[in-house]
């Protein structure tokens, strides 16, 4: 199993990943509320994290659901080994 590439992971990226790791899955709206970021900024960051293979975005009629990918969970374990995952 390869190690996740954490190069160029910003503090904001880490904050978003940590929030998702703690809840297991969140909607874009919930993440906006939890982080205080605008929808546009957050969606742009999530698309960036998706390209890195760290998150999965699931689109439905009512919401965009965000969860960590397998690589994202490994990355969070590297950064915060003691973090409790949902």
Key descriptive features of the protein:
Arc Repressor Mutant, subunit A; 51% helix; globular; 86 residues; 3 strands; single chain; 3-stranded antiparallel β-sheet; alpha+beta
Topology of helices and strands:
Layout: H1 11-23, E1 25-27, H2 28-35, H3 39-51, E2 55-59, E3 64-68, H4 70-79
What does this structure look like?
By secondary structure, the chain is of the alpha+beta class. The chain has one domain: Arc Repressor Mutant, subunit A (Orthogonal Bundle). It contains four helices and three strands, in the order αβααββα. It has a three-stranded antiparallel beta sheet with strand order 1-3-2. A hairpin with a 4-residue loop joins β2 and β3.
Derived from helix and strand composition plus strand pairing, the structural class reads alpha+beta
Radius of gyration: 12 Å
Text of the CATH class:
Mainly Alpha
The helix content is 40-55%
Describe the main β-sheet briefly.
3 strands, antiparallel
Q: How many distinct beta strands?
A: 3
Give the CA-CA distance, first to last residue. 22 Å
pLDDT averaged over residues? 86
How many domains? The number is 1
- The SSE order reads HEHHEEH
CATH architecture: Orthogonal Bundle
Strand content: 15-25%
How many helices? 4
Shape: globular
Low-confidence stretches: none
What is the CATH topology classification name?
A: Arc Repressor Mutant, subunit A
Strand order of the largest sheet: 1-3-2
The CATH superfamily name is: Winged helix-like DNA-binding domain superfamily/Winged helix DNA-binding domain
